[in-house]
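Running low. Got one?
___
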Amino acid sequence: MSALAAILANRSYSISGSDLKSNNALNDLKKQGIKIFHTQSEHNIDVLNKNFNPLIVISSAVPKNNPELVAAKKENFTICHRSDILAELINKQQSIAIAGTHGKTTTSTLITTLLTKSNQDPTALIGGVMPYFNSNSHSGLGKLLIAEADESDGTLVKFKAQLGVITNLELDHTDHYQNIDELINTMKVFTRNCKQVLANHDCKILRKNIQAFAWWSIKTNKKVKFAGLPVKINGSETIANFYENGKLIGQITIPLPGLHNLSNAVAAIAACRMEGIAFNLLKENIAYLKAPKRRFDFRGIWQGRQFVDDYAHHPSEIKATLDMARLMINSDKNLLAKSPKRLVVIFQPHRYSRIKQFLNDFAIALQNSDLIMLAPIYSAGEKPIEAINNESLKSCIQKHSPTLPVIIAKQFNHLPVLISKYTHEDDLILSMGAGDINQLWEQLQNNKKSNRWTNLRIAA
């Protein structure tokens, strides 16, 4: 929503909006002259200039009883979904839309960075903060628009991009999709709406169900248009040979560790090649690639412990992130300030429905840790499900790994105390989740300043 607001304001639309919390994105919008309300009430609708027939834009997260939405309906204002506005932008400009269960934000960020450094100046609307612009949007003067096409609510079927990029596909968002077939059918509509499709050949579900104009792979250079086969992997970078149509055209060094990031980068390079960007120019600019914020985001050092924040909230994402983090343990080849000795994972489960669906998968994915702390489930507006909580996840983890220490935080604000008690200097502390776990680093800093822990005792 904030990215849409920024782009539309740059295109001279009069924009206002509301959010109950303050953040950097809202501060940036205020600098653009956008009016931000920090309450959600009828007043915010009443003060709109009715002579200009205001258009009310909502996201899937807005409930039907939201006071602003109720007031807008009383006024008979036109109301549309966020995806309708994004579709207008995507469908009226030469565009690249990036879809898939995992890696959308990173791949979108890498494509935007490469195109920008290649003098294309694209417009971009991304689901995370792009380091190159320190923003989740950029209003460019070039012909291309780059957009993340989120499948969570099925609205990506509205998008008609010149190039659709699909990173992978597996069941998620079980609050919207009852099974994988529903998700596959949604993605099939998306592919039919795109003029061309670039897809990940390494994903079996995509290979079986999706018709693509071109495929990429990091496992084979056979039967694919683009391939990046790893030559050397460590905790700071990945070196790979890059192929087009089975022919080696050069070696690339991706300044991001992990095979999942190699796949994201190969997808980005492939998309740029399909837009006619010379390989040598792309190879030169790969050094500028950085993952978006909250993707293995190094926040700082707290009492000798290195703290990294990550958005991973699905078992596959957790596995990929922990595999990457494990490359850095007791290794000088890493992105961190120093080599850590132990991997401590602090996981905030996201949505009761997701934990219920993938309970065993979460337990298996989290095993690649030396110590686990489990925060309470972040509901994201869902009602609790009986017997689904962080205790049930702990039990499942210990069925697979009886000796792996798992600590329960009964409340989110207990985490700083538990970190102080159970972690050591030279630990890598990796916080993960899609809720408010990203605020944990600030809590550690604030608690340290106020010395709030002096008389606080918590039993884990």
